[in-house]
Design a protein that fits this description.
Elements lengths: L1 H18 L5 H4 L4 H14 L8 H16 L4 H15 L3 H15 L2 H12 L1 H50 L36
Helix pairs in contact: 1-3, 1-4, 1-6, 3-6, 3-7, 4-5, 7-8
């Protein structure tokens, strides 16, 4: 833990000092010195590289754990060596700051970078950086609730419309014709012995 904190603190200090350092002509390429300086100020203001603070400490801790498992009898030497080498490598954090500044300089103009740095250095900008993650979490929760409500209402409304259409179609459907072309029931021949509907004698000639 002590190694982690020491390396992290040194990395942050080196990164902060690199923000205002001048770049070499080779690195700057077609980006002017003032443009790159503005980019570094913007990178520092928005803490663009902060998420990478733990890379070197985590690598050191993982390496120490791995080596101690293989060589438990050399634990003290391993810890001391990794501590020294990690602290020496912390100065290379400036390379990341340079790359970050160049990336921003390629996208934003010098004036835009100056405006970005000015805003995020202000109280409003600092509050946005500090409270932004909390606001984002609340927004994601609200969006989830909104999404579920919209999906539910959409499904319900479409279902109701389709159900109404199916019902209307069933009511409007015509009565199906008798099967096999059979004659209607009122034209059927009378049963045996029954008098015809018009009062004539039965077909067998019998009379009452």
């Amino acid at each position: 833990m002590m190694l982690h904190n020491r390396v992290r603190r040194l990395s942050v200090l080196v990164a902060a000092s690199a923000v205002f350092a001048f770049s070499s002509p080779v690195f700057a390429q077609d980006v002017t010195e003032s443009h790159l300086k503005a980019a570094r100020a913007a990178v520092a203001a928005i803490h663009a590289t902060d998420p990478f603070d733990n890379i070197l400490p985590q690598a050191a801790a993982a390496l120490e754990s791995q080596l101690i498992q293989k060589n438990p009898d050399m634990q003290e030497l391993i810890g001391k060596t990794i501590n020294e080498k990690a602290l020496a490598l912390a100065s290379r954090r400036a390379d990341l700051e340079k790359e970050a500044a160049l990336a921003y300089a390629k996208v934003f103009s010098e004036k835009e970078l100056t405006d970005i740095a000015a805003f995020y250095s202000s109280e409003s900008g600092k509050k946005l950086l500090d409270s932004g993650p909390t606001v984002t979490r609340d927004l994601v929760k609200a969006a989830d609730i909104w999404q579920n409500g919209v999906a539910r209402d959409l499904a319900q409304q479409v279902g109701e419309t389709l159900a109404a259409a199916a019902k209307a179609k069933a009511v409007a459907a015509p009565t199906p014709a008798p099967a096999d072309g059979a004659a209607p029931a009122d034209n059927a021949a009378p049963a045996d012995g029954a008098a015809p509907a018009d009062g004539s004698a039965p077909a067998d000639g019998t009379q009452n």
